[in-house]
Amino acid sequence: MAKAVECRDYRDYHNDTCTFIRTTDDCKLEDGFIDYLQLVFCVIGDKLLGLGLTVLAGWLFVLFVALGVTADSYFCPALRVIARVLKLSENIAGVTFLAFGNGAPDIFSAIAAVSSAKGGDVGLAFGALFGAGVFVTTVVAGTICLVTPFRSIQRPLLRDIIFFIIASFGAYVAMYDGKIYFAESLGFIIMYVVYLIVLIGGYFVNRRIKDRRALLQAAHTEAAAKTYGSIQTPETTAVSVDEVETAIPDESYVQPDVSLALYLRHAFLPRDDVPWSERGKCGKVLSIVKLPVSLILHFTVPLVDYEKPEHNWNKLLNSFHLLSGPLVVSLLTQLGFYKIANVFPIWAVVAIVGTILCFAMLIVTEHHSKPRYHAGFAFLGFAVSVVWIYSVANEIVNLLTTFGIVFDISNTILGLTFLAWGNSLSDYVSNVVSARQGYPNMGISACYGGPLL
């Protein structure tokens, strides 16, 4: 049986490396917009290979910055708003929304890697999954504990670890004989369903216990008040009516009239809280690198922030997000390039519907007063930021794959190292950023909920 041709065999074709790269199936990179192998060997050429790898390393740095900005500025704020709107605890939000947002791209990329495996070699896919699981449960969890000292929620954490250990041992048993049967595959899915049932059931039971304790405490307090009378404390001070009126924001406040150009500038250009003059040299360089990324994200991802006036409502920009957000999702996932009845592309349908929603939002909303359904933009921002993180992570994985092929690293080692690290980047950034912004238990829960998924 002839050995399957691998992409790393390009060294045997010194005279025509470019043709080999273009015609070999193993050299085709999946789920990316740039074919880095053809860029290196066909556009740049073998003689300038070192220069090409240096340029790609710089581009890799830019992608890392884009990944960090997306998670820090858009993904985590949207997740906080969703958890607040749905009244979810940190643990529930971590093992559901945060885990799904981090784990869904790994599922799709693993399925694609298995389906496109050459000669039955699935070492790349399984190596990436297990390598990512080890990386997230060790490096990411350890980093969260280092950057944000906190008190963990013992019982939910113990539950997540027990299920993760069971799933890991089950994977070892299933793969020990080199074959995976239907019953074993179905067993893993049933295991995750049981995990969700235990998770959600435990949440409602715990909340019911807390409600009962609160009612008992209120009853004891009321009984004590009837017995001993109301308790007057010397620290109690009277608050004047003027102070109360000052503390309550004036709902009738209207921003002063400004020129149209200045209004559009404030509406559409992203603003940084740190002035340019107060930044160091590294901060200024990083700001310049981040500027194109920030502009793209600003125009495509809605940001709901409860710490800003009107929860960061911006009529013109948020109305535009109804068009740009779904359109970007359709293009980045490449679903928009499919055609309905082989005639009408899906991205055009999304653009038409988005334009209608955009103009409808402009008509029914006001400039300085957020609508009641403004929190719904957080769900749109969550979805769009997940797709951005997924797309940027795919580009990073393709770059790392290119480096692995150039430096002749085996598929299994490549899956356990470069691809595992690349697939775990979104987990690392979003989980650590969530912990740094005051939600460490959410980040730790996602460290086990994501790999378990």
TrEMBL record:
Q: Does the keyword Transport apply?
A: yes
The molecular function terms in GO held by this entry are: calcium:sodium antiporter activity
Q: Where are the transmembrane segments?
A: 48-71, 92-114, 126-150, 157-175, 181-205, 344-364, 376-393, 399-421
The record's subcellular locations are:
Membrane
Ranges for domain Sodium/calcium exchanger membrane region: 58-200, 378-452
Q: Which organism is it from?
A: Adineta ricciae
> InterPro entries recorded for this chain?
CaCA_antiporter (IPR051359), NaCa_Exmemb (IPR004837), NCX_ion-bd_dom_sf (IPR044880)
User: What name does UniProt use for this protein?
Assistant: Sodium/calcium exchanger membrane region domain-containing protein
Please report the record's description of how this protein sits within the membrane: Multi-pass membrane protein
Q: What is the lineage of its organism?
A: Eukaryota, Metazoa, Spiralia, Gnathifera, Rotifera
A GO BP term here is: intracellular calcium ion homeostasis
Give yes or no: UniProt keyword Repeat. no
Q: Quick one: where is this thing mainly located? A: membrane
Please provide, in alphabetical order, the Gene Ontology terms of the cellular component aspect for this entry.
membrane
